[in-house]
Design goal:
Layout lengths: L7 H15 L12 H10 L5 H14 L3 H6 L2 H6 L7 H18 L8 H5 L6 H12 L9 H9 L8 H11 L5 H14 L26 E2 L4 E2 L1
Antiparallel strand pairs: 1-2
Helix pairs in contact: 2-8, 9-11
The structure holds iron/sulfur cluster.
The site of iron/sulfur cluster has 14 residues, from loops.
Length: 227
């Protein structure tokens, strides 16, 4: 078991420093070329890998251009165009409904506030945060996906279980200016080393400060269960 820094703020700073050094090019891995494509890619990425989303959006973004084309498409056809994505039927409905709202209430533009974004269909705080950060350069919060959720708990930054309270705690701890990057760093480390089922603690840059480190700790703080 590693020994965390003596406060959660210092622990968060140390984690950011080390992960930045380990992953200097860390950034969003979804592909898009405008705000609407970003919104659609993020809606599709819920419970689906970015890799699969990128594969599917390659042809989707060639076929549909702009909110009118999504709003006017027959829902079954749009769903078929997404059929390798998890929950593609629901997601086709979210995309179509969101594009209708964008046309009716926002002059065809993806909105730039948390309140307006979360009124779109299938858009929660996490999706809205990604669109604000990468589409509008507005950083209002911290995106808490499954990797951020798991790593924050394993590394002793929070004992909260659900994304929204975790986000609130992280906003107190992660240095200003790193809110956006924190997510990408956690995602890179979560994919490369601190994976859900079999983290490679023996080759981890955070091992000496991680209270879940498998060498001595018997408990995975992410799940609260024994390793
Ligand atoms: S890989 Fe192991 S040591 Fe590293 S952060 Fe994850 S649980 Fe902690």
């Amino acid at each position: 078991m590693g020994t965390p820094r003596d406060s959660r703020t210092k622990q968060a700073e140390e984690i950011v420093d080390r992960l930045e050094e380990a992953y200097p090019d860390s950034t969003i891995s979804l592909r898009y070329s405008n705000r609407l494509e970003l919104l659609i890619a993020v809606i599709l990425s819920a419970q689906c890998t970015d890799e699969r989303v990128n594969k599917e959006t390659k042809h989707l973004f060639e076929k549909y251009d702009g909110p009118e084309e999504y709003a006017n498409a027959p829902e079954e056809e749009l769903a078929e165009d997404l059929n390798s994505i998890t929950y593609y039927n629901s997601k086709a409905g979210y995309i179509k409904d969101s594009c209708e709202i964008i046309l009716e209430e926002h002059d065809g533009e993806v909105p730039d506030t948390m309140d307006e974004l979360t009124e779109l269909s299938g858009v929660g705080r996490k999706t809205a945060n990604v669109v604000l950060q990468h589409g509008h350069d507005v950083v209002e919060g911290i995106v808490v996906d499954t990797h951020v959720q798991r790593l924050s708990r394993r590394l002793g930054l929070t004992e909260e279980e659900y994304p929204e309270p975790i986000e609130q705690e992280l906003m107190e701890l992660v240095p200003d200016g790193y809110w956006q990057q924190f997510t990408h760093l956690c995602i890179d480390h979560g994919r490369a080393t601190c994976t859900a089922r079999n983290p490679d603690c023996s080759d981890c840059v955070l091992a000496d400060i991680c209270p879940s480190e498998k060498g001595d700790s018997e408990i995975d703080l992410a799940s609260g269960e024994p390793w």
